[in-house]
Design brief:
Blueprint lengths: L2 E7 L5 H12 L4 E3 L8 E8 L6 H4 L4 E9 L1 E3 L8 E4 L9 H11 L12 H6 L7 H8 L4 E5 L8 E2 L2 E2 H6 L9 E14 L2 E8 L5 H12 L3 E11 L2 E2 L4 E2 H5 L14 H4 L5 E4 L4 H5 L25 E7 L5 E12 L2 E4 L10
Parallel strand pairs: 1-14, 3-12, 15-16
Antiparallel strand pairs: 1-3, 2-3, 4-11, 4-12, 5-6, 7-10, 8-9, 10-11, 12-13, 16-17, 17-18
Length: about 350
């Protein structure tokens, strides 16, 4: 069985838990995912099955979009709502304003915990965020868009001297960590409900959204933590088309579900495609290395689409005159243009 599936991960479940469920349902061990979600987070978890596990490295590089509720006015040791408050104040959930309560009720329909809360007007005024609105929040967020550095949180799976940071943190210890680079492509403020800021964040792999919330709170001087997180998009896959975990479990273990999986080349749709002339099809099938550029059907592309190190989906007409997906190629030179497929990239012909 080979293909890709888009699962909606629920709260209180690790990404590894989802993979374990998939191994049982699909009756195969060869499964990998394209980006870890913490137990508190929900949303798109893309699983690659069989030969598709070879494209995990490419899907991990796709931009991801998260919907987040950032709660201003307090900080926690985990930088999210499941941690212990270390500064600021949090008012119980039942004291929230009606707008926030309604949002929380909508979340609870999906089995999500009420993991965010509001603070008093007095505290809002003290933190100078009483009159906070979307326009002002967008101005505050501008320095966080682009290339940024993050200090990984102590409650994370990163290893330091061979030990997971969360194991060290649970012993009450703090160790030095190295900052990591990431890229925030865009932050869109959806709504501001008192001290709760709803926003969509488009970012690179390796970005900690809870750390982003924490850092924004530090800059504002009021503290902040992540109250809710849902990955709503990962490359070409979105939450709208994801399969719920219970529906997935109902598929049954003794049935071949190959027809329900996305094809490998669909998962790579973000890569530009090149179509080769049919004369080269057999040579590539036989493993002969050639400069693909010389065999590209020029009616389907133009020379300005090529840049060094850029990846492409490769197709060719087979002997039956059907377009067949061959794999991934890389441009290694533009003067002259040279495009190759090698063992370090994905081949659909193995």
């Amino acid at each position: 069985m080979t293909g890709v599936i888009n699962i909606f991960k629920p709260q209180d479940m690790t990404s590894h838990d989802v993979v374990a469920i998939a191994r049982g349902v699909l009756n195969t061990k060869k499964i990998g995912h394209t980006g870890t979600l913490d137990p508190m987070a929900t949303g798109v978890l893309v699983l690659c099955i069989g030969k598709a596990t070879k494209i995990v490295q490419f899907l991990q590089d796709d931009y991801k979009v998260y919907r987040c509720a950032m709660c201003l006015g307090a900080s926690t040791d985990t930088q999210d709502a499941w941690g212990k408050v270390v500064s600021g104040e949090i008012i119980p959930f039942d004291a929230m304003d009606n707008t926030s309560v309604n949002l929380a009720k909508k979340l609870s329909e999906f089995g999500l915990k009420s993991t965010f809360s509001t603070i008093s007007d007095e505290a809002l005024d003290r933190y100078n965020i009483l009159n906070l609105d979307s326009q002002l929040m967008n101005e505050i967020l501008k320095p966080f868009i682009g290339d940024i550095e993050q200090l990984p949180p102590m409650y994370s799976a990163i290893k330091v001297n061979g030990k997971r940071l969360y194991d060290i943190a649970r012993r009450g210890e703090i160790v030095d960590r190295k900052t990591r680079n990431c890229h925030i492509h865009d932050i869109t403020v959806l709504k501001v409900c008192k001290n709760i800021v709803w926003m969509d964040i488009t970012c690179s792999k390796g970005t900690y959204i809870r750390t982003l919330c924490h850092d924004i709170g530090q800059k504002m001087g009021c503290g902040a933590y992540m109250g809710y997180l849902c990955r709503i998009k990962n490359g070409v896959f979105s939450a709208d088309t994801a399969i719920g975990i219970e529906e997935f479990r109902s598929w049954g273990k003794d049935v071949n579900h190959s027809h329900k999986l996305y094809k490998i080349d669909y998962a790579l749709s973000n890569l530009p495609q090149i179509i080769l002339k049919k004369e080269i099809f057999k040579k590539i099938k036989n493993g002969i290395k050639v400069n693909l550029y010389k065999w590209i059907n020029k009616s389907n592309c133009c020379d300005n689409m090529y840049t060094v190190n850029k990846l492409y989906r490769v197709y060719a007409n087979n002997s039956e005159e059907h377009i067949e997906f061959l794999g991934i190629a890389k441009c290694i030179s533009i003067d002259p243009i040279k495009i190759i497929m090698d063992k370090n990239l994905f081949s659909n012909m193995e």
